[in-house]
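job 3f2a | input accepted
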Amino acid sequence: MAAARGFAAEYGTDPDFNVLVQRVVVTGDRAAAVRELAPHAPHLDEEELLDLPTLLVGTVTEIAEQLWRGRERFGFGYVTVLEPAMEAFAPVIAELRGGEPAEGHGAP
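job 3f2a | predicted structure (108 res):
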């Protein structure tokens, strides 16, 4: 992300970054859900999978918090989810709109 921002700065622009989320899994058991997904990324351990900005796994609140962290860490201005995940993602949107971010996070 730093490299992209550096290249954009050379042209006097401040890009708005987007993340394309590949999977949304709303669950109370993040570890179990990630274990099911692990065969798709055998080179990553459980913690690395949970840290991917393109994989949202957890309760609605955990996913919202992950998105706040992604905004802070990577500068994502907006998120795109694939059509099959839209229904699962809808409560996360409501959480983001209705809730205050955790301390240290900026406004959406």
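job 3f2a | Residues 64 and 92 are 6 Å apart (CA to CA).
job 3f2a | closed
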